[in-house]
Amino acid sequence: MLNNATAVSVDKSKVRSVTPKRFWNPRLLILLIPPIIWLSVFLFVPYITLFINSFWKVDFGTIVHDFSFSNYTKFFTNELYYGTLIKTLKVAFWVTLFSVLLGYPLAYFINYKIKKNKQLMYTLVIIPLWVSYLVRAYAWKIVLGQDGILNSFLLAIGVIDKPLEIFLYSPYAVTLALTHIYTPWVLMSIYTSLEHIPQNLIEASKDLGAGRFRTFYKVVLPLSMPGVIAGATFAFVLTMGDFLAPQLLGGTSSMMISNVVYSLFGVANNWPLGSAIGIITLIIVIGILEMAHRLEKKTASFEGGTNK
Questions:
Q1: Which of 144, 186, 149, 147 lies closest to 166, judged by CA?
Q2: Tens of pLDDT along the chain (308 residues)?
Q3: Which residues on adjacent β-strands are paired with residue 59?
Q4: Sign of the Cα pseudo-torsion (132, 137, 140, 146, in order)
Q5: DSSP-derived secondary structure for 53-88
Q6: DSSP designation for 197
Q7: Which of 171, 239, 254, 278 is found 20 to 30 A from 120 (Cα to Cα)?
């Protein structure tokens, strides 16, 4: 008994002495240096510079290094700025909702209903990702334009007498294009989540007398929620930062917050105000990511309890 206790104590001392050495392994530190430099140069330094620059002023086109909160005050008191942010959040919400509503049934169909050539169908769905973003945006401009495919089709079947202007240069065109662009990304996230659901749980639910709808509502949907949350977060955040689709398809009446930042940096030469709006947008995005992270943890804990 004493020998065993001594052996256990010796083993514990070895573990305690070895752990710090492994943690401070010089090779590990050498491997960490490149990503730390990369994050510092391309992430932390730009954000810190943006944050500092947001407190300066512009006087007759020249940036004055005079500390002030005037840029943040201007944002929250000028309807053009905070109104554009609210409009951007609305567009991002609708794009996310439509992307999930389109992506989830399609991912479910591919994963559970298709028995042959499943990978081929999945590849066909994500093929749009192989095409340039600009090409897809311009394609919708061709479809929705006055002389586009949609107006030509409606004229041919006699629904309208002259081309309509409401399709292009409107929030609806922006929402439609962004939904088309981000739905494949949402589908990939949901499809991966559905693939990892154990088949025996679905079979057990059916053996216990649950129908298809109840099995989906009680088993499949809760277990696939991490994928839904990840895909929805992806679509929402990227929509908030998009400025090409609103510029090509939305016109002046459908500007989003990224278009405002772009104009302040590139046209108005008001970098401090653009930096302030960028920081506010960044804070909102971080808040959304934190909420999504907490929701994912809750759904993951539910999944762990179910698997047990």
A1: 144
A2: 445 444 444 454 444 544 444 556 777 778 888 888 988 888 889 999 999 999 998 887 788 888 999 999 999 999 999 999 999 999 999 999 999 999 999 999 999 888 888 888 888 888 888 888 888 888 888 888 888 888 888 888 888 888 777 788 888 899 999 999 999 999 999 999 999 898 888 888 888 888 888 888 888 999 999 999 999 999 999 999 998 889 888 877 788 999 999 999 988 889 999 999 999 999 999 999 999 988 888 876 655 555 44
A3: 62
A4: negative
A5: HTT-EEETTEEE----SHHHHHHHH-HHHHHHHHHH
A6: S
A7: 239
**Comparing C-alpha atoms, which of 71, 132, 90 is closest to residue 240?**
90
Residue pair 237/289 in contact (Cβ under 8 Å)? The answer is yes
Q: Which helix (H) or strand (E) holds 13?
A: helix 2-23
Q: What is the CA radius of gyration of the chain?
A: 26
pTM of structure: 0.83
What tokens does 28 get? 């590990």
Q: If we measure between CA atoms, which residue out of 177, 197, 216 comes closest to residue 99?
A: 177
Q: How many CA atoms lie within 13 A of 27 on its CB side?
A: 2
State how far the Cα of 145 lies from the Cα of 142, in Å rounded to an integer. Answer: 5
- CA–CA distance, 276 with 293 (Å, rounded to integer): 26
CA angle 245, 248, 252 (to 5 degrees): 100
